[in-house]
ABC-2 type transport system ATP-binding protein
Amino acid sequence: MTKRYGNKTAVDGLTFSVHPGRVTGFLGPNGAGKSTTMRAILGLDRLDAGSVTVNGRAYAGLPRPMREVGALLDARAVHPRRTARNHLLCIAQTNAIPARRVDEVLRLVGLESVAGKRAGGFSLGMGQRLGIAVALLGDPKVLLFDEPVNGLDPEGIKWIRELMRGLAAEGRTVLVSSHLMSEMAQTADHLVVIGRGKLIADIGITEFVRQGSNVLVRAEEHELLVPLLTEAGATVHPGADGALIVTGLEPREIGRAALAAGVVLTELTPQRSLEQAYMDLTRDSIEFQASVA
Ligand code: ADP
């Protein structure tokens, strides 16, 4: 999909799929295009090119959208004088969702005791819980959360993480955005990383962690070097054009092993990790630095 605002390309030929039963982290610095993409999934923005489907259909073509996709985009989008329960009842009514589901979701998000209070007086964390209650109202199989932990205290963050993991464990599709690598590393099973509207990586967390410590090695006599590296605790995989991809040893240790074996190394290159790539990318983003500080 591609989405432009005037001459600014917010999302640029982005393609990815999100699968059920796992938490997919949607990672990118501020301004990368995450919200635009989520809005596009919900059919809230007209795309300049491409398309998005949910359960095989465009959002606009879903017969009962709230029962298929739930989303937390902007938790502040609540009528301030309405109580939490009334807010949910209104939405339930317009979407043909039974009223008893309102009490279920209030319980799920832990807002039962303040259900009769005006949402305008809610703290950020309570507002976030109310937004999540709306997302869960139709008991949808697909859930989108845009920066759900922004501004929350550690307890709120832990609660949201556990909720997302629980929803994925029930077999639901969970897409959650964040500009923080560390947050995603703790929550997601899979990562879709974007920068300036473009896809940077679509990768499992395990693979992502492994990628961080690879060294590309070329030597004149692999057959002598490989057993030594393995003995030293490394895992060695064949790379492109006869190279070796070594995991578990620092370049210096690989160099020492080669020296000991009298093998000439022709290349010894630490692979730039995705985390490094992500940091390089975010260095350009003033908002990101401000939020880290
Ligand atoms: P993210 O969610 O990753 O922070 P966004 O999707 O909000 O990124 O924004 C992507 C880019 O598109 C940014 O440069 C942003 O300024 C721009 N943008 C987003 N929404 C609008 C809009 N309604 N009008 C003009 N530019 C927009």
About this structure: The pocket of adenosine-5'-diphosphate is lined by residues 5, 8, 10, 28, 30-36 (CB under 6 Å).
